[in-house]
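User: I'm putting together notes for a lab meeting next week and I want to include a structural view of one of the chains we've been expressing. I don't have a solved structure, so I'd like a prediction I can at least talk through. The sequence is below, exactly as it appears in our construct file.
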Amino acid sequence: MTESIIAEFLEKTLKELYQNVYQLLGGSLDDRTLSLAHIGLSMLATGIKIVILLILVGVIYWFLVYLTKAVRKLFDLPHRHARIARATLRYLWFTTSLLAVMSQFGVQAETVTATAKAATWAGFYYVLWAASSQMVSGVLKHYDLNASIEQLLKNLLLVLILVLAFATVMAKFGFDIFSIVAGLGIAGLAVGWASQSTLANFIAGIVILVEQSFQVGDWIRLGDKEGRVVKISLRATQILDRDNIIIIIPNSAVASSEVVNLTSKKMIRFDIKVRIGLHADVPAARNIIQKTLQKEEVVLKHPVPLATVSEVGDSAIYLIVRFWVAPLSVARIPIIKENITEKIKHALDAAGIAAPFPHMQLVVDDGQNLSVQITKQSDQSDNESK
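Assistant: Thanks for the context. Below is the predicted structure for the 386-residue chain, given as structure tokens.
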């Protein structure tokens, strides 16, 4: 019983498939002589007509391509215009070939017409995207904006044009676009609500790219983090610190924090502190320090480095040494400051200007009372005289 039901089902399915193929190839269901010979002849006739149409379309296409090349050589047109013309001809050739094949397979005339209209609108939106992309590149180049903004605007335009193209094409085939758009809008709201942090980072990334408070290659300080900006994406900003470690910071955190751009100008100033004794010759020490800085290649000669007295302490005079470096040297500034401090120390020692240090002094009062007093001497010579 079960085997007969299965056999009957398979026989009915194969018969319906047989009739559908025959009808697709141009046969009529009123014709009761559905034989393999009829199907073969119908397929052969359809194939011959398709080949003839494709050859005809191909000949026209190659003639137009040859004509385009001749016109370009005759009027000495740029290669870019020729490439645009060939791309347009290829699109027309493909669309015409598709319509020719559809017409020979029994597709309804309304469907063929809708396909032709949809293909025309798709080509129009492609040309619109290409033209808008060139326009965006020209405008951003004129205003000297970075490549990240250009890519962002191109992506936004591409998404907008794709949505419009999809809506227009679907409308040509009778779909209710307003219902689809409404459904997509509700789904977009749900997704946006579920990913608020991602959306906040995206908006912050757009703000960072538009404001251009810092760019790729700048050295920035963000809280306790400092490094060179290596990438600004729509979700996060990546910086490379002095330890060669990539730090990824969400754009929302970057936009809501205080960012210090150390390389926004052509030079940046740093300072170090130096101690000398209370009785040391300040002008002589300043001269030695300036000569030491003049020998450093990373220190700019203009503006001239300065060494000024910042504080007179209990046991020492504190000098603050200010010097300027180029933005490329900012990444090595800790090592630069350490090396300069060491060289200044050696230069002062060689000139006999020693750094002060605290020491213990024994005071004898009339040979009777012995007291211990901790004092701070200004220099080593006073200590030896005691």
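A couple of points you could mention at the meeting. The chain is about 60% helix and 15% strand. The first strand starts at residue 219 and ends at 222.

User: Perfect, that's what I needed.
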